[in-house]
Amino acid sequence: MKTNTSENNQENKNEPCLCNMTDELKEKIMEFSEDYMHFLDAAKTEREAVKEAVNIAKSHGFKDINKKRSLRPGDKVYGINRNKSVYLAVIGKEPLTDGFNAVGAHIDSPRLDLKQNPLYEDNGIALFKTHYYGGIKKYQWTTIPLALHGVVALTDGTVKEINIGEAPEDPIFLVTDLLPHLSGKQNSKKMSEGVPAENLNIMTGSFPTVTDEESSVKATILALLKEQYGMEEKDFRSAEIEAVPAAKARSLGLDKSMVAAYGQDDRVCAYPGLMALMDIDKPERTCICILTDKEEIGSVGNTGMKSHNFELFLMDILEKNGISNSYAPQRMLSASKVLSADVTAAFDPTYSDVMEKNNAAFAGRGISIKKYTGARGKSGASDANAEFVGHVRKIFEDNNVAYQSSEMGKVDEGGGGTIAYILADRGMEVLDCGVPIHSMHSPYESASKYDIYMAYLGYRAFLLNA
Ligand code: MN
Ligand code: MN
Q1: 417 falls in which pLDDT band (50, 70, 90)?
Q2: Sheet of 239-245, strand order
Q3: HEC string of the chain?
Q4: 377 CA to centre of ligand 1 in angstroms
Q5: 289 CA distance to ligand 2 centroid (A)?
């Protein structure tokens, strides 16, 4: 027998773990992560993620629910909510009022949004003002290549799409930082104050347009925007332009065992959840995948999970199944089981002091269930029922899914939330269950390919068996 030299190795060799990964499984893991990395590159914003998800769904036979008059077991439908969130369902054989099984993930990620009056010129440089979205460490967003993704809504009703900085021939954008030679004052500040939000200004030009009256770099930029997008300066007022890292997803490490990329919170759960649903044909219970927006700023807005547009999709399903009694929607919700598919913090050996080792999630140990999230005494958590957690464990154990149980970090260090409490609020059984990642909310997060594949297996097993 081999000596177990790593303290992180699981002891029971009968349980699925990295230590008994077969070559066949490894091949599937590597293949799945290649497709995942393509998805990451194509879907850096919530709008792009909706588009990609719908393309994938269509290629698996899913139809727009608005184009269906009735639904039968085995039917596959999706409903898009304002191009920023999407709900997908495979109709099951059991009555809908007996509930559905779902996986719910979010597709928005922290980033820098252009302000509504973003463009200005200062001493020969044209810049964009930004307002950051979600929880970021501001210093991480300086001096990295950024791409601009988004839309501009013109007053005539047309919506122009913007995507600059991804193609190799495209320019990129940049937030500057102070040179070390002049950083004495900055270096002595608290880290959270070293780069104020109003310093997150994006450089966008430096060649002036010279006329008899003036010499203006801003005029150069406005002329290019007019030429390429037909937009005027005022049109920024009705634009959603997101500056995201321009880097592509890459394999990480000599053994290529990890994925490094922007936006893995929460695409590392959204993509496996989506692909799990794509595998399902004629299930017993109706299976659903929720890809929602605005989680990073509190699930607000009519595209976030707090809005009731998901219920509208469910009511549409009920009606098209011929179910119309007034309490059917609530009965359906109360009988439903959901995995809130969101990332958790992976134990980082370099910053081990904020972790409580017995209850930390480790990269490479599989998908992590979290009975509760929250901060300062579980505040903001839904705290799953023990019976339901037991039910999910059994599904994972019966289906050879490597899983672990964790919290975010030491109780007094902070915390965080997911969409779990919102789903629980509507009556569903909910358990947080996602992939542990390193450097969460940074421009370049990383995750274990093993865990990504286990998320896919776990979500699929849950959808089919919960
Ligand atoms: Mn998340
Ligand atoms: Mn997050």
Answers
A1: confident
A2: 159-164, 146-153, 239-245, 111-122, 125-133, 202-205, 174-175
A3: CCCCCCCCCCCCCCCCCHHHCCHHHHHHHHHHHHHHHHHHHHCCCHHHHHHHHHHHHHHCCCEEHHHCCCCCCCCEEEEEECCCEEEEEECCCCCHHHCEEEEEEECCCCEEEEEEEEEEEECCEEEEEEEEECCCCHHHHCCCCEEEEEEEECCCCCEEEEEECCCCCCCCEEECCCCHHHCHHHHCCCHHHHCCHHHCCEEEECCCEECCCCEEHHHHHHHHHHHHHCCCHHHHHHEEEEEEECCCCEEECCCCCEEEECCHHHHHHHHHHHHHHHCCCCCCCEEEEEEEECHHHCCCCCCECCCCHHHHHHHHHHHHCCCCCCCHHHHHHHCCEEEECCCEEECCHHHHHHCCHHHCECCCCCEEEECCCEECCCECCCCCCHHHHHHHHHHHHHCCCCEEECCCCCHHHCEECCCHHHHHHCCCEEEEEECEEECCCCCCEEEEHHHHHHHHHHHHHHHHHC
A4: 20
A5: 19
pLDDT of residue 415: 84
Distance (Å, rounded) from C-alpha 177 to C-alpha 183?
9
Question: How much distance in Å is there from the Cα of 230 to the middle of ligand 1?
Answer: 35
Domain-wise residue ranges, the chain: 7-109+262-465, 111-245
Inter-axis angle of helices 449-465 and 386-398, to 10 degrees?
110
Question: What is the whole-number distance in angstroms between the Cα of residue 350 and the centre of ligand 1?
Answer: 22
Tell me which CATH code domain 111-245 carries: 2.30.250.10
CA of 387 to the centre of ligand 1 (A): 25
| 2 has a pLDDT exceeding 90 | no
Distance CA 12, CA 308 (A): 44
Class of domain 7-109+262-465: alpha beta
Residue 453: beta bridge partners? none
Please check the confidence at residue 400 and state whether its pLDDT lies above 80: yes
Distance 418 CA to ligand 1 centre (A): 6
CA of 24 to the centre of ligand 2 (A): 33
Residue 52 · residue 270 · CB < 8 Å: no
- State the distance from the centre of ligand 2 to the C-alpha of 401, rounded, in angstroms: 24
pLDDT digits (tens, 9 = 90+) for 77-119: 999 999 999 999 999 999 999 999 999 999 999 999 999 999 9
Instruction: Average the pLDDT over 206-230 and give the result.
Output: 96
- Report pLDDT for 176: 98
